Amino acid sequence: MAIVYIESNTTGFGHRLLEASCRYDAVYWLVRDPSRYGFAGRLPAGLATIACDTRSLDALAQAVSGIGAIRYVASTSDGFIEIAAHLSERLGLPCNPSAAIALCRDKLRLGEVLQARGVPYPATREVRRAADMDMGIGFPAIVKPRQGTGSIGVRLVTDARGMPDAQDGPWIAQRFVEGTEFSVETFSDGAGHHVLAVTRKYVTRPPYFLELAHVLPADIGPDANRRIVETVTRALDAVGYAFGPAHTEVKLQGDAATVIEINARLAGGMIPRLLEYAFGWSVADLYVRSHLAGRSQFAVPEPALHAAVAFIVPDVGRRYLGIDFPEGAADAGAFQDGGTNQGRFDFSDRAGYVIAGGRTALSALRAALMLRNRSQVLYAPPEVPPPDAATVRSIALGERSAFRPGSLAGSLFLIEKAHLLMLRSQGILSAGQFRQLRDAVLAAEAEPELLRAHASGRGDYFDYEHYVIDRCGEATGGMVQAARSRNDINATHLLLTLRRAIAGTLDRSLRLGKALLERAEATVETILPIHSQYQVAMPGTAGHYLSAQATAVLGTMETLSSLQDGLDTSPLGACAGAGTTFRTITHETARLLGCVRGPSNSLAAISDKTPALRCAYLFIELSGHLNRLAIDLQLWTMRETGFVRLPEAMYGGSSNMPQKRNPYLLEWLRLHHDRHAGQFAGMLSSLSHLPTGNSYQASRCAVESIADLAGSLGDMCTVATYAIAGMRFDEPAIRRALGAGDAHATLAAEALVQEGRASFREAHTAVGHLLAQAPAEDSGPLAARASGLLAQLRIELEHGQPFDRLGSGGGPAASSTREAIAGLHGRLRRCGLRQLAAAARFEASRRELDTRFRRIR
């Protein structure tokens, strides 16, 4: 026995239905182009996919002719439900009549039938020009395609200027009906139309009607519910609806319920998920069981929970890469990996969703809206042009630095705002004192020279304290240090410095990773030796080599991202290491600074510099990858090898030898790594030889080391990105080196083993003797075959692609390298999204902090 599906929707339910159906019978999925579906590669192994022309009834009938006994044919894609019914009728299978489905899809004919049966439906006409609106419709009116779903092309027209182009039709115009929007989910069988739920729909304001949220069961009175249900039931009877799910949209105004459209399918818009959340169902299982049984298996529980979905709509015209959902969003997801909101005001504008539940419709809706508001759309950062020769030369001359994140001034005002808000909320500051201090902070933030005018000679913090005391007086200005110390200020400054340093380093590493993968893709079939102990060993490719470098860089980047995610404990409030007698709320200042919690141990909060050491080590690890890359390129740019030519700015000339071109920036990269290693050794020594407690030495060493390493490493990434993007390979020189190094030897030995002529050790010895031109101990068949293989493989080494033989174990064969690069692209994308999400969270907390600081009384 078999179940047949034609095409699928793309919101997730179609995928789940295919999987669920496999538990009941053999499943056949008929599709025109399986690649359109991102889930096609994740379907159960037993499911059979049949490619055919799914728009042709004859082609579909031919495709299923050899299947045998079919239980039912269905589709979850709106555009294929009617043809699925036609195929069912041709095969003699029970189904909803195709005529009823066709009637539901044609909104003009639907109106004629419903009005003839006395079912409220807006006056509807086909329109081709503005003059047609005078034929019983008038303005305002809803104009929409005669067939279509998902709010596509639906808009309110108030005069002739808003009429669509007739060439884009056919269009229909409906008299605009005021009222609240609902949808009714039903399943019909021989016993009638079973109501599953009435859903309240929230849409944008006219002229468009993009659905923004749904909640079910709708919180409406019994009389209103009865009117809606009776109207929908009469409408389904009128069109001859006999079997299966239906999604009917209705407007309710006062006592009048008006049908807007009937969709001969399950609802979209995540409503099936809401049904599951509210009623505890598996909609996919019940759908299959209902079709197999020929009657509805849906039973609505009493009492039910309520569930709501809120949709995330990105800004129009902005490219986005993903969505960062907040903690607590147990059921949330993106509809696609990214894109651009084209402003069509239909379902395609929606990027993702969040679902929440509650005991009432209102509580469920509020929870969903709160989760939506806390979700961050991750917009693509501005395009940064690749580094050019001028940029690289200025870095080499020390005239340019990527960034320097270590100044206290960059952290001080964030710390002050969070601290002063906490002091005010706890009553430690009066309203008047807070207002004076707020004005002082905002003035200094806008005009940093105000602090410089109060130079203390003891650093930024004392400059600030002198400034506020001078401006606000001792009684008010002297309160800024209440319930804290320079110790926890310095520890918080280190936390914020680590954040900025990691973010900046990841930003530049992402560009390096992108350059590595782009060049790897371009050189998948560019031959290059694989070396062992400085010797040519095996044939590889440049793409294989560059993807190896990308693998190492990405591993460090991912660990840096994890370290960044772990910087979620704020030390602010730990004071000098012993806490305070003031009643403070450190978790509140922590949240305002983008952290999860405040200090749990005041001494650890101000003395533990482990995160700085870990960060510094990872910076050295990344620096080491660049150092190793520079060493390789140094060897390959030697005239004796000549494998690689670098872009122009990587070279310098000789003051004495006119023929020399020195790739000195490779040595510049190595020099910086050596400096980093030395700096890390000093940092480790300094931070591990101090007693537990506050230390000026530890605080200064940690902040300055991280800032220096981050700035220098950012410059290294920029130079390496320039070198990778512009490097070119000399294949003739590479092939000469491969031949001179007998890089085909292992291939010959493995071939002898695979032909069954010898063990690997025997084959290894035979090939080695031949290459060493040693007297053969045995000039028999093994040596003869080995000689023939070596000759054949040498030709391949000189003119072919011997690396394609090395496909196992992650070898350099083009196919396996492309597969590896695809995986690395995915990792790089996820790392980029993770960084964008972290930046979005920090920026959101900064905005909230600034807004609260400015508004609080």
Automatic annotation (TrEMBL):
This protein's record includes keyword DNA-binding: no
Assigned EC number: 4.3.2.1
Enzymatic class: lyase
UniProt record, GO biological process: L-arginine biosynthetic process via ornithine
Domain ATP-grasp: 111-292
GO cellular component: cytosol
Gene Ontology molecular function: any one: argininosuccinate lyase activity
SUPFAM superfamilies xrefs: Glutathione synthetase ATP-binding domain-like, L-aspartase-like
Secreted in keyword set: no
Keyword terms, alphabetized: Amino-acid biosynthesis, Arginine biosynthesis, ATP-binding, Lyase, Nucleotide-binding
Metabolic or biological pathway, per its Swiss-Prot or TrEMBL entry: Amino-acid biosynthesis; L-arginine biosynthesis; L-arginine from L-ornithine and carbamoyl phosphate: step 3/3
InterPro entries, A to Z: Argininosuccinate_lyase, ATP-grasp, ATP-grasp_PylC-type, Fumarase/histidase_N, Fumarate_lyase_CS, Fumarate_lyase_fam, Fumarate_lyase_N, L-Aspartase-like
Reaction catalysis annotation: 2-(N(omega)-L-arginino)succinate = fumarate + L-arginine
Xref: Pfam families: ATP-grasp_3 (PF02655), Lyase_1 (PF00206)
Name under which the protein is recorded: argininosuccinate lyase
Natural source organism: Paracidovorax cattleyae
